[in-house]
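Now for a specimen:

…
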Amino acid sequence: MKEGYIEDIFKNKSDFDSLELVDLNKDIKQGNFNENQHNEAKYFDNSERIRDNEGLYESHIIKPIIGFLNSYEGFGNLYLGISTGGPSSSKFLDIKPINENIIKNEDYLRQLIMDGAGVFPVSHYRPLLKIKKIRFEDGNVFIVSAEKANNNSVYFSKISNYIYKRNFDETNKLDLIDSIRLIESKKNPRLLLEFSYVGITKPKNLRANSNSLAARYNVYLVNNGFEPSFFVTGLIKSKPGKTSEFNPVVTLPNSWKIVSNINSIVNAQFIKGVPPDSMPIYPGIKIQLGEMTVEYNPAFNLDLNFEIKIMDKKGTTTQSFSLIESFNDKNPNLKPRDEKIEYISYI
């Protein structure tokens, strides 16, 4: 499970006083943290008991957890005690600790989730939960990391019997057709690309600026579904972000067909399966598609966006993420962030 990047502001501490709370709120505003596919925040006005208000219980705890579990990757981080900009904004604003008369402790919160979250077809595949409490003078913040138990389970709210799903930065209630589509998609192959950071080297062909470096990534095709896939076509587009001062150069694996490369926007296609290969893409097995390099200049901020579409005979996966890095040190992480994944089956 990936950690929510907003956790960095807590610096692995679990206790803060009132002065430190002021500093944390400044860090949140300056950090420009936003809700995305794997992060959502809720806060309480500290006047209502959750058990006495089913609407509050569902909307603030059960709905976001169910949404994460039914998403493509099946995990997410719920921050209880942090506010956002409301329906018109997904930006994290400030910390509003929760009184213990609302949520007593980690065990109480765990029981709330387990009592309100249902799963079928096999009831013992309960969600996997990790709960962390951050203590303040006026209450607590809870970080709930939820993960599905397996790929073929569908989760629902026991309070309303609704199925929810997280799509990008929203948690939506599914209607009957979308609920059937979600259940059916659990049986299919589900394919996406996975990028593994290798390291940084000097580019083979230096640009005019000799300070250029190249970040190297292994690219894998992964089937997270339950059926093998026999033929896959993938399209990938990489393009500089809005704040790019120095356009990164992206070099994709040699076996990929470059469709176009105009103004630093690279479009490419890859084909995998039977034909042209002799082996299907089986669930749980990574297939390496080659190495991708991103050439950049450490003197400028890196801002690069990827849009990926992978098509199988039973469905399509749409995937996107960003590489955003400010080079304040010599060893940048260069980890993909704000990843969004959506799977649509052809039924």
Q: What stands out?
A: The chain has a mean pLDDT of 88. Helices lie at 18-31, 54-69, 106-116, 176-185. The first helix runs from residue 18 to 31.
